[in-house]
Amino acid sequence: MKLNWQVLKGHREAPFLILDIVVLVLISINLLWLLVDAILLNTGVGVLLGRHFPELITHYRQNWHETLLVADSVFTLLLISELLLRWGVAIRRKTYHRWFFYPFVHWYDVLGCIPLPPFRALRLLRLISIGYRLQKLGVVDFSQSSLFAVPYRYYRMVIEELSDRIVINVLEGVQREVRGGSYVSHRLADEVLRPHRDSIVPWLAGLLSETGAYAHGRHREQLRRYLAESVRHAIAVNPDLQKLRKRLLFAGPTVEDELQRIVSGLLAQMVDDLLGDISQPDNMALQDVAGGLFDSLTRPRESSDDILRQIVLDAIELIKTQVGVQQWKAGQANDGRP
């Protein structure tokens, strides 16, 4: 496990972070020593060692046990001093609403200062809180430590499984409420979509503009051929033009072809100009079309309520599927772990 000293440079809480690291080490040593002392003097393991290695247990009891009591008393004084220091800083910075809130918020720190076995166990909570704060700030990374890597991985697995079950239960409750009535679709239109009308309508108009420009550019030649064929057919079936063609025996076909070319060219140019103007992003007519489309979509209607309700249900189902993916299994597969 490595310390990221770069995080401490320039950090306003650097002195307290360093103090956290020192307290973290001292609490770890203190708890480990207390655990060993309890095992040797108060468990069957100590009894077995006393039978086979009586000199070891006697030596420990006469020398190290008393040293532990003295060291624990000194450490308790250090914890009390550190508690008073942090309390004073919290009062000066007005961290809490009242000056006496600190010991209630950090109750495990206060009780952990009591040098009795039941209260010494609360120092473990202090150890966990300090480790979590240092991990969150990036000062240490316990997940990369061989000592904490395996417990940390299983901790993440348990937390993920619990949180996934909770989130899925909440989402299923929301789905039941959505299926039970149409008020959700009304609220979706009234409280989510309509307040953002000024942003959605220009975005929708932009989509219409891009779609129109793309479709026009892709089918422009097809549109020209369609217009030319339509003009040719209209001229061919127009009785007045057919009478004119009969009058002009020799020039009739030429006039018909020329007229067809001129009219189809004019129509194609008009359509090109029209679609080009409509495709402009700032076209007010397109803004009105988009606004009318938005108002039609958000207007209360039984069919639109059913559509919105189904959209909400499908979106929640998609979220449930994603939440149900066990990321810790995917992580193990990527790492090659069984």
Model description:
The protein is an all-alpha fold. 82% of the residues lie in helices and 0% in strands. It has 17 helices and no strands. It is rod-shaped and about 135 Å long. It starts with a helix and ends with a helix. The model has no long low-confidence stretch (mean pLDDT 76).
Topology, element by element:
Layout: H1 5-8, H2 14-42, H3 44-52, H4 54-93, H5 102-105, H6 107-112, H7 117-120, H8 123-137, H9 149-180, H10 183-193, H11 197-218, H12 220-237, H13 239-247, H14 252-278, H15 284-298, H16 302-323, H17 327-335
Summarize the structure.
By secondary structure, the protein is mainly α. Helix content is 82%, strand content 0%.
The shape, in one word, is rod-shaped
Number of DSSP helical runs: 17
Q: Estimate the mean pLDDT confidence.
A: 76
What percentage of residues falls in helices of 4 or more residues?
Answer: over 70%
Largest sheet: none
- The unreliable regions are none
Q: Compute the CA-based radius of gyration.
A: 40 Å
Number of strands: 0
Roughly what fraction of the amino acids lie in strands?
Answer: under 5%
Report the order of strands and helices: HHHHHHHHHHHHHHHHH
N-to-C terminal Cα separation, in Å?
24 Å
